[in-house]
Amino acid sequence: MNNLNELKAWMLENPTSTQLIKYSIWVLVILSLIVFLRRLIKKRFPDTSLRYKSQKGIEIIGYLFIGIISISYFTGSIKDFGLAIGLLTAGITITLQELILSIAGSFYIFFVRVYKPGDRIEINGIKGDVIDIDSIYTTMMEIGEWISSDNYSGRIVKLSNAFVFKGPVYNYSQDFPFVWDEFNIPIRYGSDIDLAKSIVIKIATEELSEFVNKSKAEWKQVVDKYYIEDAQVDPTLAISMTDNWIEFNLRYIVDYKKRRYTKHRLNEMIEKSIRETEGKVLLASATFEIVRIPTIDVKEEK
Prior knowledge:
By secondary structure, the chain is of the alpha+beta class. It folds into 3 domains: about 1-95, no CATH class; about 120-170, SH3 type barrels, CATH 2.30.30; about 180-275, Alpha-Beta Plaits, CATH 3.30.70. It is built from 8 helices and 8 strands. Helix 2 (about 15-45) packs antiparallel against helix 3 and helix 6 packs antiparallel against helix 8 (about 260-275). The longest helix is centred in the first third of the chain and has 30 residues, at about 15-45. The chain is elongated and about 115 Å long. It starts with a helix and ends in a 27-residue tail after the last helix.
């Protein structure tokens, strides 16, 4: 009983410390509740996407409550919310500029749907698959760098959400999960060009039919949503003549995650079909023709 009376007396004598203790307890309670609810959601929600969004929602709401309690503690009343914001804005903006931009960026990403976990994006010169988005950072599994084509490098990159305000964000999968790709095929002069064209178009049409059919429906939705003209999604072949060979340029549409394998498959099958023509169609390589050998005058000294 005496200890309780002493505690009450100490609290009356030290109001600032009492308020600080109460504030700390409230913050700990909210943080503990966030952790508890996140674990509960992880166990109860089998759907990965729904679980992720629910956990992020709980986290944002919890931090919002902590912000309100902090303002209430430092100003003495929730009614002073506007005044407190006005007084603190100048200092906070200067000292925590990057942090504020990152938090604002997280809300912008969430509400505007710039990208989401699972999307393949390129931002600030870094390309990769988004694996997590929190209130400050976007975490990506990096693609490229010293690795050719669209393969993982193995590095996990944490990028500030503030970068969504500082430059373009390239999204490979949002709205239209296909990309156009192309490569060149050098055909030797004197080859049967009509036969070569039929080989390339036939293989491209057969191999890419699944992508073409799926992309047509997806592209129609893009045209309905944005101010953009219709596009050719079927494989196209353009021919140009160079000093050394006739160049076939094959352009086609492909799933953004299967670009490398599809190019390998097309090259492999085209090369095999060209070999089976028994010389009617030949692949070209860089050659040099010596037109004239200059005369050399050699004088012998005695």
